[in-house]
Design a protein that fits this description.
two-stranded antiparallel ribbon, 11-stranded mixed sheet, 2 helices, 4% helix, mainly beta, single chain
């Protein structure tokens, strides 16, 4: 798991820049000759002295020598009830926990509580490199067992087994996923290394509510079915059609609001705005009658619920405390097959994604800027999914012809 060329091998990684003197138009070297020779000054202990004064650009990684093996626990339980012929009800619980997962934190951050004196804090802001724990380095990425996640979910499922040409399966899941970083081995700078609990919150992939139903139905027309139970041309055209329909409803993913344009200064590190109102999300939100331009949309977020943090503070808003718009996504399919000879058949299928043109909006603009609120909290042109991905807001048709033998 590497997130950069020299993440795991930087102690053996060095670069040199060969360039012409200012004002010299001649090429530095020709490819046929190769670059000129150069030499690194290697100390007896094998290290190479840092050349220059920009220590903030001198980054390093440190892998915890006491790192433990991460592990994941899973558990589940449930029951089924066959309450009628061909009908089944199921309730199940699933849980999981990831323990001691690998994450990387910058341990060379300036502590937020380094001082409460405004004059001292202004001095630190102006020369922050001198106040890092290790001022001769910039970012020191420490990889250790910082990660942790958990999932708890309850699912209720109803099933009608195939009978009379109809099969139905529907389930609803209520769940919650919590973590402090979304990627295994991911880089997590967060608010501050010294209080990593501030990053505990809903995972980016947490979907609180999800309902999915799948129905397949053999239309009762054609040979072997209730109506038009005969062969011939009529059966070849109108008989033997199968219908499938899938409906998905789910709540939106969580997201975090950031900010820009603050008139005051902050220490290096992560910052989030303050939440000063209970209704950060517009109640019963809809995009409004005008989708274009973006400024004409009804904002999903209420700008009055956010404020800039005071100088040299990190803000009070947590990670992933807001939820994006949900999703409504139907799918429809109509198919028929014709059998030729003994082993050959031709299949025609018409698939539709989002046939009712349900709008599925993406994340709203989540950068709070008091100086420019024209786009803040509005979804703009953001929609969910790609051409045929789950949640695509664009209806599309797929006509499939297939020959099997």
């Amino acid at each position: 798991m590497t997130y950069g060329l020299n993440q795991m091998f930087e102690e053996y990684f060095a670069t040199a820049s060969v360039q012409a003197a200012p004002g010299d138009p001649r090429p530095v070297f020709r490819l046929s000759q190769g670059p000129p020779s150069f030499q690194f000054n290697v100390a007896p202990d094998g290290s190479v002295p840092f050349v220059g004064t920009n220590y903030g650009a001198r980054n390093a990684s440190w892998f915890d020598p006491n790192m433990r093996m991460p592990y994941i626990m899973n558990w589940s339980g449930g029951f089924q009830w066959n309450f009628a012929q061909n009908w089944l009800f199921e309730a199940s619980y699933q849980g999981s926990r990831g323990v001691r997962l690998l994450n990387g934190w910058n341990i060379n951050q300036i502590p937020l509580d380094i001082s409460t004196d405004p004059n001292v804090l202004r001095t630190i802001f102006q020369s922050s490199q001198n106040y890092r724990p290790y001022p001769q380095f910039g970012t020191i990425r420490h990889y250790s067992n910082y990660g942790d996640n958990s999932y708890h979910g309850v699912t209720f499922r109803g099933e009608k087994r195939y009978s009379y040409g109809l099969a139905l399966n529907a389930f609803y899941t209520f769940s919650k996923a919590i973590n402090n970083s979304d990627g295994d081995g991911d880089v997590n700078d967060g608010i501050t290394f010294y209080n990593r609990a501030l990053e505990k919150g809903r995972a980016n992939y947490d979907i609180r509510h999800r309902f999915v139903s799948v129905m397949t139905y053999e239309l009762p027309f054609g040979k072997g079915r209730k109506f038009m139970n005969q062969g011939g041309v009529l059966n070849a055209i109108l008989g033997g059609w199968d219908l499938a329909y899938t409906q998905t409803f789910q709540s939106g993913p969580p997201f975090t609001v950031s900010f820009a344009g603050s008139p005051v200064n902050y220490l290096p590190g992560g910052t989030r705005p303050n939440m000063v109102g209970a209704n950060a999300v517009t109640p019963d939100w809809s995009i409004g009658p005008d989708r274009f331009p973006t400024q004409a949309q009804v904002p999903y977020l209420n700008a009055a619920a956010f404020e800039y943090p005071a100088a040299f503070t990190a803000g009070t808003m947590g990670r992933n405390v807001l939820e994006a718009p949900g999703l409504t996504w139907p799918q429809f399919s109509l198919s028929k097959q014709w059998t030729f000879f003994e082993r050959a058949r031709f299949i025609l299928r018409w698939d539709m994604n989002n046939p009712f043109k349900s709008p599925n909006f993406g994340l709203p603009d989540a950068t709070f800027n008091r100086q420019n609120l024209a786009n803040f909290g509005r979804v703009g042109t953001n929609t969910r999914g790609g051409f045929s991905d789950i949640g695509t807001a664009q209806p599309n048709h797929l006509l499939v012809f297939r020959l099997e033998w």
